[in-house]
Write a structure and sequence with these properties.
This protein is an alpha/beta fold. The protein has two domains: about 160 residues, 3-Layer(aba) Sandwich (Rossmann fold); about 160 residues, Glycogen Phosphorylase B (Rossmann fold, 3-Layer(aba) Sandwich). The protein is about 35% helix and about 20% strand. It contains 14 helices and 13 strands. The strands form two sheets. A seven-stranded parallel sheet has the order 3-2-1-4-5-6-7. Helix 1 links the parallel strand 1 and strand 2. The longest helix is centred in the last third of the chain and has 14 residues. It starts with a strand and ends with a helix.
């Protein structure tokens, strides 16, 4: 049995945490003994509620011997000295997102041989990493394994009833943290165009942020729009997603948004911006729409298509199949056969 330790700074109810929950709860308990360590002790109860039956939690300064250490995000300065107590045979950096802290740790980890491999969640991120000077030519060091989702559980949760009615013309949902990088300024522009054309719409927003200030900043952008409904953080956003015409995600960038795939599982088309990973999941005018991040004037031109093509796009998603077994096989192959 392989012993695996996942290191994370904390649980902030974002995509990284969902990916961690889903992976741990689907790894074979007969093959793996799973441990989790973290620096933010306040997140223990969240972890325990989500995946307490699948793993064992250890303190960051606790001595432990494992086969594999997986960094889910960068190592904080607080954890740097304590993490030396962890003995391991191999280590991987599960690289979910770009950011100053992530990239600084990645560079340090690579230059000091602290990690054996980098696991990316989409091909576009892998390509981007291979363009970094200190990673050029290291194709074997970087692999892509897509995030795990429980498609059957998503479909079951989506059957729960909601007390929100659909709008006459267009109902959309944004499932994202309430931060600027998620492109809420673009969302505002799109909604303004809908209003100008007297289109009856409704936008549901499911998500929160690390601080109340961030939440208020986003909410204030839409304070005069009664058609925008903030749902807060939702354990089950799928019941709302299921009643919508589109999942709306107009981010600055996304490494691989879980909501894009969740939407496809439920047969809901995506409206996304042209960040690199969008093209791996969304085909414009076939199973969704890809809008420009820079040319927001073009949104006005896409509105007739968004309104008229929604049923056709849903039909195109009826045969979409999400293959969880293939992803689990990739993890098994990495953990057992990585040389």
């Amino acid at each position: 049995m392989k012993k695996i330790l996942f290191y994370t700074n904390g649980i902030y109810r974002g995509g990284i945490e969902m990916a961690l929950y889903n992976l741990i709860s689907h790894l074979d308990a007969n093959k793996y003994k799973i441990y989790v360590t973290y620096t933010d002790k306040n997140t223990f109860k969240i972890l325990e509620k989500k995946i307490g039956n699948y793993c064992e939690y250890i303190e960051i300064d606790q001595e432990i011997n494992v086969d594999i250490l997986i960094f889910c995000n960068y190592v904080s300065k607080y954890a740097e000295k304590n993490i030396k107590n962890i003995k391991y045979k191999k280590s991987y950096f599960w690289f979910h997102c770009f950011g100053e802290n992530q990239e600084n740790f990645l560079e340090k980890a690579c230059k000091n041989n602290l990690i054996d491999k980098i696991i990316t969640v989409c091909d576009s991120v892998r390509k981007e990493l291979l363009n970094i000077e200190y990673l050029k030519g290291q194709d074997n060091k970087i692999i892509t394994i897509k995030n795990i989702l429980d498609s059957e559980k998503i479909k079951i949760k989506a059957q729960e009833k909601v007390d929100i009615s659909r709008a006459k013309d267009l109902t959309m949902i944004t499932i994202a943290r309430l931060v600027k990088e998620k492109g809420f300024q673009r969302v505002k522009i799109l909604l303004d165009y809908l209003t100008q054309q007297n289109i009856h719409y409704k936008l549901l927003v499911a998500g929160t942020a690390n601080t109340e200030e961030q939440v208020l900043q986003i909410k204030n952008m839409f304070k005069d729009d009664n058609n925008v409904i903030f749902l807060g953080y939702q354990e089950n956003p799928y019941k709302y997603l299921k009643i919508c015409d589109y999942n709306l995600l107009l981010s600055d960038r996304e490494n691989m948004s879980l909501s894009m795939i969740e939407s496809k599982i439920l047969g809901i088309p995506n409206i996304v911006t042209d960040f690199a990973s969008a093209f791996e999941e969304v085909k414009d005018m076939e199973n969704g729409f890809i809008l420009s991040r820079n040319d927001t004037l073009s949104y006005k031109e896409r509105i007739p298509q968004i309104l008229n093509e929604k049923q056709r796009l849903k039909e195109n998603l009826k045969n979409y199949q999400y293959n969880i077994n293939e992803i689990l096989y990739q993890w098994d192959n990495l953990i057992y056969y990585d040389k």
